[in-house]
Fold:
Amino acid sequence: MKIGIDMMGGDFAPLEAVKGVAAFFAELDAPVQLVLIGDEEQIKAHILNHPLPAERYSIVHASQVIEMHEHPTKALKEKKESSIAIGFYLLATGKTDAFISAGNTGAMMVGSLFSIKPIEGVLRPTIGAYLPREDGTLGLLVDVGLNADCKPENLNQFAILGSLFAQHILNFENPKVGLVNLGEEEGKGNLLAQAAYPLLKQNALINFVGNVEGRDLLQNKADVFVCEGFTGNVILKLAESIYDIVKRRNIDDEHFNRFNFEQYGGVPVLGVSKPVIIGHGISHAIAFKNMIRIAYRMLEIDLMGKIKSSFVAPTT
Amino acid sequence: MKIGIDMMGGDFAPLEAVKGVAAFFAELDAPVQLVLIGDEEQIKAHILNHPLPAERYSIVHASQVIEMHEHPTKALKEKKESSIAIGFYLLATGKTDAFISAGNTGAMMVGSLFSIKPIEGVLRPTIGAYLPREDGTLGLLVDVGLNADCKPENLNQFAILGSLFAQHILNFENPKVGLVNLGEEEGKGNLLAQAAYPLLKQNALINFVGNVEGRDLLQNKADVFVCEGFTGNVILKLAESIYDIVKRRNIDDEHFNRFNFEQYGGVPVLGVSKPVIIGHGISHAIAFKNMIRIAYRMLEIDLMGKIKSSFVAPTT
Structure:
Protein backbone atom coordinates (compact mmCIF):
# COMPACT_ATOMS: atom_id res chain seq x y z
CA MET A 1 0.00 0.00 0.00
CA LYS A 2 1.51 3.32 -1.10
CA ILE A 3 0.27 6.81 -0.25
CA GLY A 4 1.60 9.80 -2.18
CA ILE A 5 2.03 13.10 -0.33
CA ASP A 6 2.59 16.49 -1.88
CA MET A 7 5.37 17.78 0.37
CA MET A 8 5.23 21.28 -1.17
CA GLY A 9 1.55 22.07 -0.54
CA GLY A 10 0.42 24.41 2.22
CA ASP A 11 1.83 27.49 3.84
CA PHE A 12 4.33 25.61 6.01
CA ALA A 13 5.59 23.04 3.55
CA PRO A 14 7.79 21.12 3.33
CA LEU A 15 8.82 21.34 7.02
CA GLU A 16 5.37 20.64 8.51
CA ALA A 17 4.76 17.92 5.92
CA VAL A 18 7.96 16.14 6.98
CA LYS A 19 7.02 16.49 10.65
CA GLY A 20 3.56 15.11 9.86
CA VAL A 21 5.05 12.10 8.10
CA ALA A 22 7.34 11.49 11.08
CA ALA A 23 4.39 11.71 13.45
CA PHE A 24 2.39 9.25 11.36
CA PHE A 25 5.24 6.72 11.41
CA ALA A 26 5.73 7.17 15.13
CA GLU A 27 2.06 6.58 15.80
CA LEU A 28 1.16 3.77 13.45
CA ASP A 29 3.21 0.75 12.50
CA ALA A 30 1.13 -0.18 9.48
CA PRO A 31 2.06 -1.87 6.22
CA VAL A 32 2.06 1.38 4.28
CA GLN A 33 4.78 3.07 2.28
CA LEU A 34 4.74 6.85 1.93
CA VAL A 35 5.85 8.46 -1.32
CA LEU A 36 7.09 11.98 -0.62
CA ILE A 37 6.69 14.19 -3.68
CA GLY A 38 8.51 17.51 -3.90
CA ASP A 39 11.89 19.21 -3.91
CA GLU A 40 14.25 16.37 -2.98
CA GLU A 41 16.95 18.59 -1.52
CA GLN A 42 14.57 20.48 0.74
CA ILE A 43 12.82 17.33 1.88
CA LYS A 44 16.12 15.61 2.70
CA ALA A 45 17.31 18.64 4.64
CA HIS A 46 14.24 18.51 6.87
CA ILE A 47 14.51 14.74 7.30
CA LEU A 48 17.95 15.33 8.86
CA ASN A 49 16.19 17.10 11.70
CA HIS A 50 13.11 14.87 11.73
CA PRO A 51 14.43 11.39 10.88
CA LEU A 52 12.15 8.91 9.12
CA PRO A 53 12.54 5.11 9.01
CA ALA A 54 14.33 4.57 5.68
CA GLU A 55 12.39 1.46 4.68
CA ARG A 56 8.97 3.14 5.03
CA TYR A 57 9.29 5.98 2.54
CA SER A 58 10.68 7.04 -0.82
CA ILE A 59 11.13 10.46 -2.40
CA VAL A 60 9.98 11.42 -5.89
CA HIS A 61 11.55 14.68 -6.96
CA ALA A 62 9.30 17.48 -8.30
CA SER A 63 11.07 20.58 -9.58
CA GLN A 64 7.98 22.81 -9.68
CA VAL A 65 5.27 23.97 -7.28
CA ILE A 66 1.75 25.15 -8.13
CA GLU A 67 1.29 28.23 -5.99
CA MET A 68 -1.92 28.94 -4.09
CA HIS A 69 -3.04 31.81 -6.34
CA GLU A 70 -2.46 30.09 -9.68
CA HIS A 71 -5.28 29.20 -12.07
CA PRO A 72 -5.84 25.47 -11.49
CA THR A 73 -6.36 24.18 -15.04
CA LYS A 74 -3.66 26.38 -16.52
CA ALA A 75 -1.15 25.53 -13.80
CA LEU A 76 -1.74 21.78 -14.03
CA LYS A 77 -1.27 21.90 -17.80
CA GLU A 78 1.84 24.09 -17.75
CA LYS A 79 3.60 22.78 -14.64
CA LYS A 80 3.98 19.13 -15.50
CA GLU A 81 6.88 18.83 -13.05
CA SER A 82 4.90 20.23 -10.14
CA SER A 83 4.31 18.12 -7.05
CA ILE A 84 0.55 18.04 -7.67
CA ALA A 85 0.87 17.07 -11.34
CA ILE A 86 3.36 14.34 -10.49
CA GLY A 87 1.21 13.23 -7.56
CA PHE A 88 -1.76 12.65 -9.83
CA TYR A 89 0.45 11.00 -12.45
CA LEU A 90 1.70 8.49 -9.86
CA LEU A 91 -1.87 7.89 -8.69
CA ALA A 92 -3.28 7.48 -12.20
CA THR A 93 -0.55 5.04 -13.22
CA GLY A 94 -0.97 2.88 -10.13
CA LYS A 95 2.41 3.78 -8.59
CA THR A 96 0.52 5.08 -5.56
CA ASP A 97 -2.87 4.10 -4.14
CA ALA A 98 -3.89 7.47 -2.65
CA PHE A 99 -2.83 11.11 -2.90
CA ILE A 100 -2.76 13.90 -0.34
CA SER A 101 -2.05 17.61 -0.77
CA ALA A 102 -2.55 20.82 1.19
CA GLY A 103 -1.72 22.81 -1.94
CA ASN A 104 -3.84 24.65 -4.50
CA THR A 105 -7.39 23.39 -3.85
CA GLY A 106 -8.58 24.12 -7.37
CA ALA A 107 -5.70 22.15 -8.88
CA MET A 108 -6.53 19.26 -6.55
CA MET A 109 -10.16 19.35 -7.70
CA VAL A 110 -9.24 19.51 -11.37
CA GLY A 111 -6.69 16.72 -10.92
CA SER A 112 -9.25 14.55 -9.12
CA LEU A 113 -11.79 15.00 -11.87
CA PHE A 114 -9.53 14.61 -14.87
CA SER A 115 -6.49 12.52 -13.88
CA ILE A 116 -8.35 9.66 -12.27
CA LYS A 117 -11.72 8.20 -13.14
CA PRO A 118 -14.93 8.54 -11.19
CA ILE A 119 -16.32 5.28 -9.88
CA GLU A 120 -18.68 3.75 -12.42
CA GLY A 121 -22.19 5.08 -11.92
CA VAL A 122 -21.08 8.21 -10.06
CA LEU A 123 -22.30 11.17 -12.11
CA ARG A 124 -20.29 13.79 -10.22
CA PRO A 125 -17.66 13.26 -7.53
CA THR A 126 -18.05 15.50 -4.49
CA ILE A 127 -15.99 17.10 -1.75
CA GLY A 128 -17.12 16.89 1.83
CA ALA A 129 -16.15 18.94 4.87
CA TYR A 130 -16.55 18.46 8.59
CA LEU A 131 -18.90 20.48 10.74
CA PRO A 132 -18.16 20.74 14.48
CA ARG A 133 -21.40 19.84 16.26
CA GLU A 134 -22.38 21.06 19.67
CA ASP A 135 -22.40 17.52 21.08
CA GLY A 136 -18.67 17.23 20.42
CA THR A 137 -18.90 15.06 17.31
CA LEU A 138 -18.31 15.94 13.67
CA GLY A 139 -20.97 16.09 10.99
CA LEU A 140 -20.19 15.78 7.28
CA LEU A 141 -21.33 18.39 4.77
CA VAL A 142 -21.41 17.44 1.06
CA ASP A 143 -20.88 19.18 -1.38
CA VAL A 144 -18.73 22.15 -0.38
CA GLY A 145 -17.84 23.61 -3.73
CA LEU A 146 -16.93 21.08 -6.38
CA ASN A 147 -20.45 21.19 -7.84
CA ALA A 148 -21.97 24.66 -7.83
CA ASP A 149 -24.94 23.58 -9.91
CA CYS A 150 -26.54 20.22 -9.27
CA LYS A 151 -29.34 18.01 -10.48
CA PRO A 152 -31.51 16.16 -7.95
CA GLU A 153 -29.76 12.85 -8.71
CA ASN A 154 -26.40 14.45 -7.90
CA LEU A 155 -27.61 15.25 -4.39
CA ASN A 156 -28.94 11.72 -4.08
CA GLN A 157 -25.51 10.36 -4.95
CA PHE A 158 -23.73 12.78 -2.58
CA ALA A 159 -25.97 11.34 0.13
CA ILE A 160 -24.74 7.81 -0.59
CA LEU A 161 -21.09 8.85 -0.83
CA GLY A 162 -21.29 10.93 2.34
CA SER A 163 -23.10 8.16 4.16
CA LEU A 164 -20.46 5.57 3.34
CA PHE A 165 -17.68 7.94 4.44
CA ALA A 166 -19.53 8.78 7.66
CA GLN A 167 -20.13 5.12 8.39
CA HIS A 168 -16.71 3.71 7.63
CA ILE A 169 -14.36 6.59 8.36
CA LEU A 170 -16.23 8.67 10.94
CA ASN A 171 -17.65 5.49 12.53
CA PHE A 172 -21.32 6.46 12.57
CA GLU A 173 -23.62 3.49 12.70
CA ASN A 174 -26.40 4.00 10.15
CA PRO A 175 -25.63 7.72 9.67
CA LYS A 176 -28.60 10.07 9.51
CA VAL A 177 -28.79 11.95 6.21
CA GLY A 178 -30.46 15.38 6.13
CA LEU A 179 -31.29 17.52 3.13
CA VAL A 180 -30.22 21.13 3.74
CA ASN A 181 -33.31 23.23 3.16
CA LEU A 182 -35.09 26.44 4.13
CA GLY A 183 -37.86 24.68 6.03
CA GLU A 184 -38.46 21.41 7.81
CA GLU A 185 -41.62 20.20 6.12
CA GLU A 186 -41.63 17.98 3.07
CA GLY A 187 -42.42 20.11 0.01
CA LYS A 188 -40.34 23.08 1.19
CA GLY A 189 -37.39 24.35 -0.74
CA ASN A 190 -36.14 25.58 -4.05
CA LEU A 191 -36.86 23.47 -7.12
CA LEU A 192 -33.70 21.41 -6.61
CA ALA A 193 -34.42 20.54 -2.97
CA GLN A 194 -38.07 19.82 -3.74
CA ALA A 195 -37.04 17.39 -6.48
CA ALA A 196 -34.24 15.81 -4.47
CA TYR A 197 -36.43 15.08 -1.43
CA PRO A 198 -38.40 12.15 -2.93
CA LEU A 199 -35.21 10.62 -4.35
CA LEU A 200 -33.59 10.68 -0.91
CA LYS A 201 -36.75 9.39 0.72
CA GLN A 202 -36.88 6.39 -1.61
CA ASN A 203 -33.18 5.67 -1.43
CA ALA A 204 -32.76 2.36 0.41
CA LEU A 205 -28.99 2.84 0.74
CA ILE A 206 -29.28 5.75 3.17
CA ASN A 207 -31.01 6.62 6.44
CA PHE A 208 -32.84 9.77 5.33
CA VAL A 209 -34.21 11.90 8.17
CA GLY A 210 -35.76 14.68 6.07
CA ASN A 211 -35.01 18.36 5.71
CA VAL A 212 -32.58 20.17 7.96
CA GLU A 213 -32.31 23.94 8.32
CA GLY A 214 -29.39 26.31 8.86
CA ARG A 215 -29.87 26.08 12.62
CA ASP A 216 -29.42 22.29 12.49
CA LEU A 217 -26.01 22.34 10.81
CA LEU A 218 -24.09 22.47 14.08
CA GLN A 219 -26.38 19.97 15.81
CA ASN A 220 -26.89 16.22 15.54
CA LYS A 221 -30.24 16.20 13.79
CA ALA A 222 -28.30 14.69 10.90
CA ASP A 223 -24.81 13.22 10.52
CA VAL A 224 -24.53 13.86 6.80
CA PHE A 225 -25.80 17.19 5.47
CA VAL A 226 -26.49 17.21 1.75
CA CYS A 227 -26.65 20.25 -0.51
CA GLU A 228 -25.26 21.63 -3.76
CA GLY A 229 -21.77 23.06 -3.64
CA PHE A 230 -22.78 26.71 -3.76
CA THR A 231 -24.69 26.73 -0.48
CA GLY A 232 -22.25 24.21 1.02
CA ASN A 233 -19.29 26.42 0.25
CA VAL A 234 -20.94 29.47 1.82
CA ILE A 235 -21.83 27.43 4.93
CA LEU A 236 -18.28 26.08 5.28
CA LYS A 237 -16.56 29.44 4.90
CA LEU A 238 -19.03 31.14 7.25
CA ALA A 239 -18.36 28.45 9.87
CA GLU A 240 -14.60 28.77 9.36
CA SER A 241 -14.82 32.52 9.86
CA ILE A 242 -16.49 32.03 13.26
CA TYR A 243 -13.22 30.61 14.56
CA ASP A 244 -11.26 33.66 13.40
CA ILE A 245 -13.72 35.95 15.18
CA VAL A 246 -13.62 33.84 18.34
CA LYS A 247 -9.82 34.02 18.42
CA ARG A 248 -9.71 37.76 17.76
CA ARG A 249 -12.12 38.25 20.66
CA ASN A 250 -9.94 36.13 22.96
CA ILE A 251 -12.67 33.60 23.56
CA ASP A 252 -11.21 30.26 24.62
CA ASP A 253 -14.02 27.76 24.52
CA GLU A 254 -13.66 24.02 24.00
CA HIS A 255 -16.48 23.90 21.48
CA PHE A 256 -15.59 26.96 19.47
CA ASN A 257 -11.96 25.81 19.36
CA ARG A 258 -13.32 22.95 17.29
CA PHE A 259 -14.18 25.52 14.60
CA ASN A 260 -10.45 25.53 13.85
CA PHE A 261 -10.84 23.50 10.70
CA GLU A 262 -7.10 23.03 10.34
CA GLN A 263 -7.12 20.28 12.96
CA TYR A 264 -9.33 18.02 10.82
CA GLY A 265 -6.53 17.52 8.38
CA GLY A 266 -8.32 17.53 5.10
CA VAL A 267 -11.46 16.79 3.22
CA PRO A 268 -12.03 13.75 1.05
CA VAL A 269 -12.90 13.80 -2.63
CA LEU A 270 -15.64 11.19 -2.80
CA GLY A 271 -16.74 9.25 -5.85
CA VAL A 272 -13.38 9.03 -7.58
CA SER A 273 -11.71 5.63 -7.93
CA LYS A 274 -8.87 6.30 -5.48
CA PRO A 275 -8.59 8.18 -2.19
CA VAL A 276 -7.71 11.84 -2.65
CA ILE A 277 -7.47 14.14 0.37
CA ILE A 278 -7.34 17.91 0.04
CA GLY A 279 -5.73 19.70 2.95
CA HIS A 280 -6.21 23.13 4.41
CA GLY A 281 -3.73 25.77 3.18
CA ILE A 282 -2.46 26.42 6.68
CA SER A 283 -1.85 22.76 7.54
CA HIS A 284 0.62 21.97 10.29
CA ALA A 285 2.20 18.61 11.18
CA ILE A 286 -0.91 17.29 12.92
CA ALA A 287 -3.03 18.06 9.86
CA PHE A 288 -0.64 16.16 7.59
CA LYS A 289 -0.58 13.24 10.02
CA ASN A 290 -4.37 13.16 10.15
CA MET A 291 -4.68 13.29 6.36
CA ILE A 292 -2.34 10.32 6.01
CA ARG A 293 -4.35 8.43 8.62
CA ILE A 294 -7.61 9.08 6.78
CA ALA A 295 -6.16 8.01 3.43
CA TYR A 296 -4.71 4.92 5.11
CA ARG A 297 -8.05 4.11 6.71
CA MET A 298 -9.89 4.56 3.39
CA LEU A 299 -7.52 2.02 1.82
CA GLU A 300 -7.48 -0.34 4.83
CA ILE A 301 -11.25 -0.80 4.90
CA ASP A 302 -11.52 -0.61 1.09
CA LEU A 303 -13.94 2.33 1.06
CA MET A 304 -13.60 2.52 -2.72
CA GLY A 305 -14.78 -1.10 -3.04
CA LYS A 306 -17.75 -0.37 -0.79
CA ILE A 307 -18.67 2.68 -2.88
CA LYS A 308 -18.35 0.61 -6.06
CA SER A 309 -20.78 -2.00 -4.72
CA SER A 310 -23.30 0.70 -3.83
CA PHE A 311 -23.25 2.07 -7.35
CA VAL A 312 -23.53 -1.27 -9.14
CA ALA A 313 -27.30 -1.38 -8.69
CA PRO A 314 -29.52 1.60 -9.46
CA THR A 315 -29.71 3.80 -6.40
CA THR A 316 -33.45 4.25 -6.36
CA MET B 1 -49.60 58.73 9.48
CA LYS B 2 -51.01 55.43 10.80
CA ILE B 3 -49.08 52.27 11.58
CA GLY B 4 -50.95 49.02 12.14
CA ILE B 5 -49.59 46.53 14.68
CA ASP B 6 -50.62 42.94 15.08
CA MET B 7 -50.89 42.77 18.89
CA MET B 8 -51.42 38.99 18.86
CA GLY B 9 -48.26 37.95 17.01
CA GLY B 10 -45.23 36.46 18.75
CA ASP B 11 -44.76 34.25 21.76
CA PHE B 12 -45.28 37.04 24.31
CA ALA B 13 -48.21 38.86 22.73
CA PRO B 14 -50.20 40.87 23.51
CA LEU B 15 -48.37 41.93 26.72
CA GLU B 16 -44.98 42.60 25.12
CA ALA B 17 -46.65 44.29 22.15
CA VAL B 18 -48.45 46.71 24.50
CA LYS B 19 -45.22 47.38 26.38
CA GLY B 20 -43.47 48.01 23.06
CA VAL B 21 -46.13 50.48 21.98
CA ALA B 22 -45.81 52.28 25.33
CA ALA B 23 -42.03 52.42 24.94
CA PHE B 24 -42.38 53.85 21.43
CA PHE B 25 -44.71 56.60 22.62
CA ALA B 26 -42.42 57.40 25.56
CA GLU B 27 -39.39 57.66 23.30
CA LEU B 28 -40.74 59.48 20.27
CA ASP B 29 -43.23 62.29 20.12
CA ALA B 30 -43.95 61.98 16.42
CA PRO B 31 -47.09 62.67 14.38
CA VAL B 32 -47.97 59.02 14.12
CA GLN B 33 -51.07 57.15 15.18
CA LEU B 34 -50.81 53.47 16.10
CA VAL B 35 -53.61 51.08 15.22
CA LEU B 36 -53.56 48.14 17.61
CA ILE B 37 -55.09 45.06 16.01
CA GLY B 38 -56.13 42.10 18.15
CA ASP B 39 -58.33 40.94 20.98
CA GLU B 40 -59.74 44.19 22.34
CA GLU B 41 -60.40 42.89 25.84
CA GLN B 42 -56.89 41.51 26.28
CA ILE B 43 -55.27 44.61 24.83
CA LYS B 44 -57.29 46.90 27.12
CA ALA B 45 -56.42 44.80 30.16
CA HIS B 46 -52.72 45.22 29.46
CA ILE B 47 -53.11 48.94 28.76
CA LEU B 48 -54.43 49.31 32.33
CA ASN B 49 -50.98 48.29 33.55
CA HIS B 50 -49.08 50.01 30.78
CA PRO B 51 -51.03 53.20 30.02
CA LEU B 52 -50.94 54.69 26.55
CA PRO B 53 -51.78 58.30 25.58
CA ALA B 54 -55.41 58.00 24.44
CA GLU B 55 -55.08 60.38 21.51
CA ARG B 56 -52.20 58.47 19.93
CA TYR B 57 -53.76 55.05 19.35
CA SER B 58 -56.91 53.19 18.43
CA ILE B 59 -57.88 49.54 18.76
CA VAL B 60 -59.31 47.41 15.96
CA HIS B 61 -60.75 44.20 17.33
CA ALA B 62 -59.72 40.88 15.78
CA SER B 63 -61.43 37.78 17.11
CA GLN B 64 -59.01 35.25 15.61
CA VAL B 65 -55.27 34.55 15.70
CA ILE B 66 -53.18 32.74 13.09
CA GLU B 67 -50.99 30.44 15.13
CA MET B 68 -47.28 29.96 14.40
CA HIS B 69 -47.64 26.42 13.06
CA GLU B 70 -50.57 27.07 10.72
CA HIS B 71 -50.32 26.79 6.94
CA PRO B 72 -50.00 30.42 5.75
CA THR B 73 -52.22 30.46 2.67
CA LYS B 74 -54.87 28.27 4.23
CA ALA B 75 -54.94 30.24 7.47
CA LEU B 76 -55.15 33.62 5.75
CA LYS B 77 -58.04 32.40 3.65
CA GLU B 78 -59.96 30.75 6.48
CA LYS B 79 -59.26 33.18 9.33
CA LYS B 80 -60.61 36.40 7.89
CA GLU B 81 -61.05 37.81 11.40
CA SER B 82 -57.44 37.13 12.39
CA SER B 83 -55.20 40.01 13.37
CA ILE B 84 -52.92 39.41 10.37
CA ALA B 85 -55.80 39.24 7.86
CA ILE B 86 -57.35 42.39 9.29
CA GLY B 87 -53.93 44.07 9.40
CA PHE B 88 -53.44 43.52 5.68
CA TYR B 89 -57.03 44.56 4.97
CA LEU B 90 -56.47 47.88 6.75
CA LEU B 91 -53.19 48.35 4.89
CA ALA B 92 -54.65 47.47 1.49
CA THR B 93 -57.62 49.79 1.93
CA GLY B 94 -55.48 52.73 3.03
CA LYS B 95 -56.72 52.78 6.62
CA THR B 96 -53.12 52.28 7.72
CA ASP B 97 -49.85 53.21 6.04
CA ALA B 98 -47.66 50.38 7.34
CA PHE B 99 -48.12 47.00 9.03
CA ILE B 100 -46.06 45.16 11.63
CA SER B 101 -46.39 41.65 12.99
CA ALA B 102 -44.28 39.17 14.93
CA GLY B 103 -46.75 36.43 14.06
CA ASN B 104 -46.74 33.62 11.51
CA THR B 105 -43.91 34.55 9.11
CA GLY B 106 -45.37 32.62 6.20
CA ALA B 107 -48.72 34.38 6.55
CA MET B 108 -46.91 37.72 6.62
CA MET B 109 -45.08 36.80 3.42
CA VAL B 110 -48.23 35.64 1.68
CA GLY B 111 -50.11 38.72 2.84
CA SER B 112 -47.33 41.01 1.60
CA LEU B 113 -47.33 39.40 -1.81
CA PHE B 114 -51.06 39.12 -2.36
CA SER B 115 -52.84 41.78 -0.26
CA ILE B 116 -50.77 44.75 -1.36
CA LYS B 117 -49.13 45.41 -4.68
CA PRO B 118 -45.45 45.28 -5.52
CA ILE B 119 -43.96 48.58 -6.61
CA GLU B 120 -44.19 48.92 -10.39
CA GLY B 121 -41.17 47.38 -12.03
CA VAL B 122 -40.29 45.16 -9.08
CA LEU B 123 -40.42 41.59 -10.36
CA ARG B 124 -40.23 39.97 -6.93
CA PRO B 125 -40.36 41.64 -3.51
CA THR B 126 -37.72 40.41 -1.08
CA ILE B 127 -37.12 40.02 2.63
CA GLY B 128 -33.88 41.19 4.15
CA ALA B 129 -32.24 40.36 7.48
CA TYR B 130 -29.47 41.93 9.51
CA LEU B 131 -26.05 40.38 9.95
CA PRO B 132 -24.00 41.40 13.01
CA ARG B 133 -20.58 42.37 11.70
CA GLU B 134 -17.38 42.15 13.65
CA ASP B 135 -16.86 45.92 13.47
CA GLY B 136 -20.03 46.47 15.50
CA THR B 137 -22.27 47.52 12.61
CA LEU B 138 -25.06 45.64 10.88
CA GLY B 139 -24.96 44.34 7.34
CA LEU B 140 -28.09 43.55 5.33
CA LEU B 141 -28.65 40.16 3.71
CA VAL B 142 -31.26 39.89 0.91
CA ASP B 143 -33.10 37.55 0.21
CA VAL B 144 -33.58 35.34 3.26
CA GLY B 145 -36.31 33.03 2.12
CA LEU B 146 -39.09 34.72 0.19
CA ASN B 147 -37.55 33.70 -3.15
CA ALA B 148 -36.00 30.25 -3.08
CA ASP B 149 -35.42 30.23 -6.84
CA CYS B 150 -34.28 33.40 -8.56
CA LYS B 151 -33.39 34.74 -11.95
CA PRO B 152 -30.33 36.99 -12.35
CA GLU B 153 -32.54 40.09 -12.70
CA ASN B 154 -34.19 39.27 -9.36
CA LEU B 155 -30.81 39.45 -7.62
CA ASN B 156 -30.10 42.70 -9.43
CA GLN B 157 -33.34 44.16 -8.07
CA PHE B 158 -32.70 42.84 -4.54
CA ALA B 159 -29.41 44.76 -4.74
CA ILE B 160 -31.25 48.02 -5.47
CA LEU B 161 -33.89 47.43 -2.80
CA GLY B 162 -31.31 46.43 -0.20
CA SER B 163 -29.12 49.38 -1.11
CA LEU B 164 -31.92 51.90 -0.64
CA PHE B 165 -32.87 50.39 2.72
CA ALA B 166 -29.23 50.34 3.85
CA GLN B 167 -28.75 53.95 2.79
CA HIS B 168 -31.93 55.48 4.19
CA ILE B 169 -32.73 53.28 7.17
CA LEU B 170 -29.36 51.89 8.24
CA ASN B 171 -27.66 55.19 7.32
CA PHE B 172 -24.88 53.83 5.14
CA GLU B 173 -23.50 56.37 2.73
CA ASN B 174 -23.19 54.75 -0.69
CA PRO B 175 -23.60 51.20 0.68
CA LYS B 176 -21.28 48.56 -0.73
CA VAL B 177 -23.14 45.73 -2.46
CA GLY B 178 -21.56 42.26 -2.59
CA LEU B 179 -22.75 39.19 -4.46
CA VAL B 180 -22.64 36.12 -2.19
CA ASN B 181 -20.55 33.56 -4.03
CA LEU B 182 -18.19 30.62 -3.61
CA GLY B 183 -15.13 32.51 -4.81
CA GLU B 184 -13.89 36.06 -5.06
CA GLU B 185 -12.93 36.27 -8.71
CA GLU B 186 -15.30 37.42 -11.44
CA GLY B 187 -16.54 34.36 -13.33
CA LYS B 188 -16.85 32.19 -10.21
CA GLY B 189 -20.14 30.78 -9.06
CA ASN B 190 -23.12 28.74 -10.02
CA LEU B 191 -24.98 29.67 -13.19
CA LEU B 192 -27.17 32.18 -11.33
CA ALA B 193 -24.28 34.04 -9.69
CA GLN B 194 -22.28 34.02 -12.92
CA ALA B 195 -25.20 35.59 -14.78
CA ALA B 196 -26.04 38.06 -12.02
CA TYR B 197 -22.49 39.41 -11.74
CA PRO B 198 -22.47 41.44 -15.00
CA LEU B 199 -25.94 42.86 -14.23
CA LEU B 200 -24.74 44.08 -10.83
CA LYS B 201 -21.52 45.39 -12.31
CA GLN B 202 -23.39 47.48 -14.88
CA ASN B 203 -26.04 48.68 -12.45
CA ALA B 204 -25.52 52.42 -11.99
CA LEU B 205 -27.92 52.56 -9.04
CA ILE B 206 -25.67 50.54 -6.73
CA ASN B 207 -22.09 50.53 -5.48
CA PHE B 208 -21.13 46.98 -6.48
CA VAL B 209 -17.93 45.69 -4.89
CA GLY B 210 -17.88 42.22 -6.46
CA ASN B 211 -18.20 38.73 -5.04
CA VAL B 212 -18.16 38.04 -1.33
CA GLU B 213 -17.64 34.64 0.27
CA GLY B 214 -19.05 32.96 3.35
CA ARG B 215 -16.18 34.28 5.44
CA ASP B 216 -17.08 37.87 4.46
CA LEU B 217 -20.67 37.73 5.71
CA LEU B 218 -19.79 38.87 9.23
CA GLN B 219 -17.30 41.47 8.02
CA ASN B 220 -17.58 44.86 6.34
CA LYS B 221 -16.39 43.89 2.88
CA ALA B 222 -19.95 44.68 1.82
CA ASP B 223 -22.91 46.39 3.51
CA VAL B 224 -25.57 44.65 1.44
CA PHE B 225 -25.12 40.94 0.73
CA VAL B 226 -27.18 39.68 -2.20
CA CYS B 227 -28.21 36.08 -2.84
CA GLU B 228 -31.24 33.94 -3.60
CA GLY B 229 -33.49 33.09 -0.69
CA PHE B 230 -32.37 29.49 -0.33
CA THR B 231 -28.77 30.23 0.54
CA GLY B 232 -29.81 33.39 2.41
CA ASN B 233 -32.19 31.46 4.63
CA VAL B 234 -29.54 28.86 5.49
CA ILE B 235 -27.04 31.65 6.28
CA LEU B 236 -29.52 33.47 8.53
CA LYS B 237 -30.59 30.41 10.50
CA LEU B 238 -27.00 29.24 10.89
CA ALA B 239 -26.03 32.68 12.23
CA GLU B 240 -29.03 32.70 14.57
CA SER B 241 -28.05 29.29 15.92
CA ILE B 242 -24.59 30.60 16.87
CA TYR B 243 -26.23 32.77 19.54
CA ASP B 244 -28.04 29.78 21.04
CA ILE B 245 -24.77 27.87 21.24
CA VAL B 246 -22.95 30.86 22.74
CA LYS B 247 -25.61 31.19 25.44
CA ARG B 248 -25.65 27.48 26.25
CA ARG B 249 -21.88 27.61 26.65
CA ASN B 250 -22.14 30.59 29.01
CA ILE B 251 -20.08 32.84 26.77
CA ASP B 252 -20.84 36.49 27.43
CA ASP B 253 -19.22 38.44 24.64
CA GLU B 254 -20.30 41.84 23.38
CA HIS B 255 -20.02 40.82 19.75
CA PHE B 256 -21.65 37.42 20.01
CA ASN B 257 -24.48 38.93 22.06
CA ARG B 258 -25.26 40.80 18.85
CA PHE B 259 -26.17 37.43 17.30
CA ASN B 260 -29.36 37.67 19.36
CA PHE B 261 -31.51 38.55 16.37
CA GLU B 262 -34.48 39.37 18.55
CA GLN B 263 -33.03 42.77 19.39
CA TYR B 264 -33.18 43.94 15.77
CA GLY B 265 -36.93 44.01 15.92
CA GLY B 266 -37.89 42.75 12.54
CA VAL B 267 -37.01 42.46 8.92
CA PRO B 268 -38.49 44.58 6.16
CA VAL B 269 -40.37 43.26 3.16
CA LEU B 270 -38.85 45.31 0.35
CA GLY B 271 -40.40 46.06 -3.03
CA VAL B 272 -44.02 46.17 -1.91
CA SER B 273 -45.89 49.46 -2.06
CA LYS B 274 -46.17 49.96 1.70
CA PRO B 275 -43.88 49.25 4.66
CA VAL B 276 -44.35 45.77 6.09
CA ILE B 277 -42.15 44.57 8.95
CA ILE B 278 -41.99 40.93 9.98
CA GLY B 279 -40.91 40.36 13.56
CA HIS B 280 -39.13 37.53 15.27
CA GLY B 281 -41.41 34.98 16.96
CA ILE B 282 -39.82 35.61 20.35
CA SER B 283 -40.17 39.40 20.19
CA HIS B 284 -40.16 41.31 23.47
CA ALA B 285 -41.14 44.94 24.07
CA ILE B 286 -37.88 46.34 22.69
CA ALA B 287 -38.35 44.39 19.46
CA PHE B 288 -41.87 45.79 19.01
CA LYS B 289 -40.62 49.29 19.74
CA ASN B 290 -37.82 48.92 17.20
CA MET B 291 -40.19 47.59 14.55
CA ILE B 292 -42.49 50.57 14.99
CA ARG B 293 -39.49 52.90 14.76
CA ILE B 294 -38.33 51.28 11.51
CA ALA B 295 -41.81 51.46 9.96
CA TYR B 296 -42.09 55.09 11.11
CA ARG B 297 -38.69 55.91 9.63
CA MET B 298 -39.60 54.22 6.32
CA LEU B 299 -42.70 56.43 6.12
CA GLU B 300 -40.97 59.57 7.39
CA ILE B 301 -38.28 59.57 4.73
CA ASP B 302 -40.66 58.15 2.08
CA LEU B 303 -38.58 55.08 1.32
CA MET B 304 -41.38 53.77 -0.89
CA GLY B 305 -41.19 56.91 -3.02
CA LYS B 306 -37.44 56.55 -3.35
CA ILE B 307 -37.82 52.91 -4.39
CA LYS B 308 -40.48 53.90 -6.93
CA SER B 309 -38.16 56.46 -8.53
CA SER B 310 -35.40 53.88 -8.82
CA PHE B 311 -37.67 51.50 -10.66
CA VAL B 312 -39.12 54.03 -13.09
CA ALA B 313 -36.13 53.76 -15.41
CA PRO B 314 -34.76 50.38 -16.48
CA THR B 315 -32.18 49.26 -13.94
CA THR B 316 -29.43 48.35 -16.36
